[in-house]
Amino acid sequence: MTLVAFAPATVAAQDRCDPEAIVSMADDILALRSEIEGVSARRGATTAAYLKIRYDEMSDDAAQEMLAELEASDLVEAPILAQALAVTRDGPRDGLARFGDPIELLTAAQPSVKRAALAYDDGAEYFEMVAEIRADPALNETFNRTDYSGLRTASLVYDLDDARRQAIAKQAEASGELVTALHLYASLADRAPFDDFLDRQADNEAMGVFGTPMAIRTSLVDVLRGPEPLLASPDASEEEQSRYAMERAVIRAAMLTPEASYLTTLYNQSGELEAVNEAATAYLDALEAGEIDGAEDAWLTQLDALIEAQSSDWAYNLLRAFQFPPGEIRHYAGFASDTLDYARAARQATAPLSGEEVQAPDLLSETEQWSDWLTAVGIAFERSEPADQDEGRRVVELLFDSGQVTEAMDYAEAHLDPETRWPVLRDLLVRYDLQCDGHTAYPGGSLLTGGRVLYRF
């Protein structure tokens, strides 16, 4: 068993996949870097390079040559990709030695590099190197700033199957990295290895802290692994159990929302656990039924459930108070209310492009006008010149959402200036990957990685 990750819900989504279109989009994004000031520091270009390597099936040598050129042109995250690729092929010590001192590099390594090291030989060499880091107080202090004494390490391999995760857990335990081992054992479908581990560590005071029911129940891996907690808390009151079950559903729904989630923010701002729990539960049911196809579908399913649980005014008053999602995830990101209205309008406006009857949606934000989308529909049919860049973005969105991916790219190239085209392509690239092989998807990534792409080879 692998821990659940968001994947295209329908066969139709897979049928829309065109790897050549992804490579073309990635090439366009990398080419645009030279036309936009400051773009070299943005992660979108690194993700484009990553997906080009994966979908173009580049050899290691060709990929490293491309990454060296990108690093020379000041793509600041190119070394992360290069190191992750080298570690995947040659192991952490030899792979990192190509870039400097391997122990120092692993000490401050980014998650993608650590993940590659853990996945190589089930972590044996990685934990040997960690022991060397632990022996140096200065290096150990630096390492713990990102490792959190092992709390974060386990989450880097949650996409591997149970056999691989258990093998890595055994290496971690043998090396004394007990918190990492604990969380990896906790992630397994079979709880026997977890129970055996706790028995072996019964006299370990640290496990008395990290291995308690509350410590496990509040860990993200326990929420991610399934709807029921791994360990019960018999001393908790019925009210406490009920509250925890609802909070668990909210966090689980957030973790299983592709790319980014607003549910936890909404709960933190409103304190209305029951209403947010209803939205989370409705979403989880729809996800299990295979009814969710993409992030927008997830966000709107949750919004509809929130409105049903409370009211439109209640939902939108809260959604106007914070930005969602981060701008690097959606080209149309703004206040959550505006983002969700944009997503709903785009979904409704694609109907005529698919030969269906269009129905005007209820849009409650002040910035989104349905008439603008109807105008964009006409332009999309005719492929005519947009009045401005915002109108051009709507046309590209409509073409992409209706499955006309190549046409969307062609229209963007013809009618969007580089500053507008860059975030649109960066956004569509990841969305299209999630309809294809899902190299940017990761179990619980919206919370575990903050929506950042974990580069995996």
From TrEMBL:
What this protein is called in its record is Uncharacterized protein
**Native organism:** Pelagovum pacificum
